[in-house]
# Entry
Amino acid sequence: MKTLRPIKDLSRGELAQWLQERGEPSYRLDQLEGWLYRHDVASFHDMTNLPKTFREVLLGEFCLFSLEEVAREEALDGTTKFLFSTLDGERVEAVLIPDRDRLTLCVSTQVGCRMGCRFCLTGRQGFRRNLTRGEMLDQVLLVRREVRDQGRELTNVVFMGMGEPLDNYEESLAALRVLISDKGLGFSHRKVTLSTVGLVPQVRRLAREGLDLTLALSLNATDDETRSLLMPINRRYSLEEVVAALRGYPLPPRKRFTLEYVVLEGVNHSPQDARRLARLVEGLRVKVNLIPFNPFPGAEFERPSEREVLEFQAQLRQLGLSTFIRQSRGQEISAACGLLRWRRGA
Ligand code: SF4
# Structure
């Protein structure tokens, strides 16, 4: 039996060429992409302005979705974790986070992760494979369809789920371009965030793409010794090199970098950490997101008390850093990154 290719794995150029080879008129590309990215159709049959014979060709050549939902957990605060199966039987997660007037989807870019951060369950599970652009886009499209059925709209997308997006550079960038393109999903670039551990060459490359995305750095420590302990990648790219890469990044006016900082009990939230952090990013436009650690089975770290996190926030604010505490959402579900996949035995 013929293997069907996931259609969203094709770039706009590849799709255009495929259409041209079949003698299709040039407007067919926009029509088709409209169905793929802007209307929520469940099948090629539903693409009603395409000729029936052409829909049959699509059916014989491609599959429309490369993911299928296999589980879902919803927390009392509305945070919903989706577990998807890929065509080759891998499992990936996406998490929908409602917050006042915002509805953010956290997208995975790899099955597992190579970075091995010690406070992260995904990191402990190892790496399986990169996700394709289509698999990343399908996380957004499948959840958007759900959300729209409830009369709501996705407002933000963050590449902050399982995996390191810049370790899967080509596919992550291809998916991001479709997300922010008018011919694609049409998100404002201000509403799309890429989070990285700080792969310096890739951050420099990203700086030259002219994409204008919000960039978040997963920082988590203020000295190399602690950061290398928490994040093995720091042995390759030191804090100084990572921050230098940020300094070379063309940050648009009125935008700031986000520094993600998982607060681990007794590890990284001393007054000295606050002072070092302020010195490290002096002159950079940043906001700091403190994330109290969410323990998972077998974790080596503990969650700090609320008082400790508030104290650290106050110290950072006193030093002039705009600092927020990101409440861990959906704590009664498998909210730690990778936990639903792990619990389902993937
Ligand atoms: S925190 Fe992110 S980069 Fe680090 S291991 Fe987990 S998924 Fe990978």
In short: The radius of gyration is 21 Å.
